[in-house]
Write the structure tokens for this entry.
Amino acid sequence: MGRIVQATPEAIEEAATIIRQGGLVAFPTETVYGLGANALDATAASRIFEVKRRPAFDPLIVHVRGQAMLQEVAAEVPERARTLIGRFWPGPLTLVLPRRPKVPSVVTAGLPTVAVREPSHPVASELIRRAGVPVAAPSANPFGRLSPTRAEHVARYFGEGVDLILDAGRTPHGIESTIVSVLNERVVVLRLGAVPIEEIEAVVGPVELARPVDRPTAPGQLPSHYAPATPLRIARPEEIGQEERRRAGYLAFRDVPEDGFAAVRVLSPHGDVREAAARLFDLLHELDALGLEAIYAEPVPEEGLGRAIMDRLRRASLRAS
Ligand code: TXA
Ligand code: MG
């Protein structure tokens, strides 16, 4: 298994050195664990694609710290992007902006744009500061699988494929960043995520929502994604027969369903979508590890973070293969 170390200052320093030397480091962010490499080193960045078995058309997010590093990768920061940065950075909002030529095209999958965010997690932030370079990092899971919310998930996924895994426990938001493209002052949400659309609209007014497509200019929009190994379906308990229940796990929103399931996990006993989002992938990993025949997930209210949760559940329930 990949070496897991507590994210002490010494370990972060070692991780920063590995990144500067072209290696791969998994690290916690406030959303999910990322699989990071020097974003300005094309060879290092291509290793991310190999390890994740990620198709070359799916570009990476570049993690920065501070305005100077942002300017290093983005050719232009439109007014409305500045407004969003002022309100949400550091934090779980990714902006798609015109790129500078020095960002290797492997990172941007040949697009004229680059996705950038400044993470607020202290370990991520310190890692970027010490590395002194922007860090390209997708979520640290094999392509199409559940995102990792714990260092152990990363170790299980990648074994020796990663040089070092920094462990800081479970990630606080537990769901990926919201991705917004801001080109020519037009704001389009490409992926629902940890910042609810309502909060973005409160700052920049009404935004457009991109629809999932097969071969995205802006993936994360792939229809099938975030899937556990166990087949997942969205269903209320009453829709599931007794026989099926005995071989299935249930991911409930608030209330524990009448028994009969092989295993039950509850997203939020308080019925709070924020708490539910934070626990979503974590509990799916737990249910997935039980090796059951199926996982059923209860629909959650589609408001605020509930929209991002339902987006992930729908994609997880569509299996490409
Ligand atoms: O919360 C997060 O965003 C986590 C942490 C590690 O920061 N990262 C993450 O990365 O979720 P990833 O690779 O799993 O998802 C990044 C998404 C991909 O779907 C990719 O297609 C999209 O960002 N993306 C990257 N560059 C883009 C670009 N230039 N235009 C449109 N979409 C882009
Ligand atoms: Mg991902």
In short: The domain at 232-318 is CATH 3.40.50.11030 (Rossmann fold). The longest strand covers residues 33-38. The mean pLDDT is 93.
